[in-house]
Fold this protein.
Amino acid sequence: MNRWLALPLLLLAANTADPQPVPAPVPITEPELVSLADQFAFGHNGARMTVPVQIAGAGPYEFIIDTGAQRTVISRELAGKLGLAGGRTVRLTGMTGTENVGTVIIPSISVSTLGGERIEAPALSAVHLGAPGMLGIDALQGHALAIDFDNQRMTVSPARRRGQTVRRAPDEIVIQAKSLFGQLVVTDARVNGQRVRVILDTGSAVTMGNMALRNRLARRSKVVPISLISVTGGELTADYGSIKSIEIGSISINDMPIAFADVPPFRVFGLEKKPAIMLGMDTLKLFTRVQIDFANRELRLSLPRNMRRG
């Protein structure tokens, strides 16, 4: 069985009924954060893309951006280094289940010139996060994310104003998305002519599909079992294969790699019985540039020359 260390997967957190304070993490030296996931996400020679984040004026620290996560999280190692105060205990739902996790209080967090808000962030092990932390959609509302794969650069900027027109480039397609619990979901997508919901998940190295989608596909398609590790350290086994063709908006992607498993986030979103995909970085990096405007619920994809429109 293949075993991959997955990048941060989708996270959902809610306060427990009777939250309890947890002590601040003990300061320790942050480990060297190198994993197979780094290579899988951006090629064998490229580093994973991050954005510089300031925490209470300290930093910058390189955080992953996870559009599939409702909550920003920080590594216990960095929280300890900064001496952040302990917060409440929350229920955290990830790819491998739900568990109680301690939080810390981040007095202010900002990226570029944006932000500066106070956040109560779940604290997880840096080894499983693969970074000092990651920004969730709680820190991205009202902002726009641009991922430039050609130049290996990720930037966050203010979202455009309502009604402001942005000219579309010749190699670019624009897709309107919907909001589901804060996540952006593309509904204009089809596999074998049937509609499939697509959640944008920049925090995951691997594109995930649910079993409702798997059951709609030809059973003769080949899959191999793989083991993935979530940000909480839990493991899951998935069937790894490919989809012959998927249409997203007006483009077609052929032989798209995908791992199939009925992971908890599909259930939380009410999508366990509807064909659905969490589109990870392995698929997003097929494009030269990806732009996500959270305020306007808009996705812009710049096409490489070898990708065709539907």
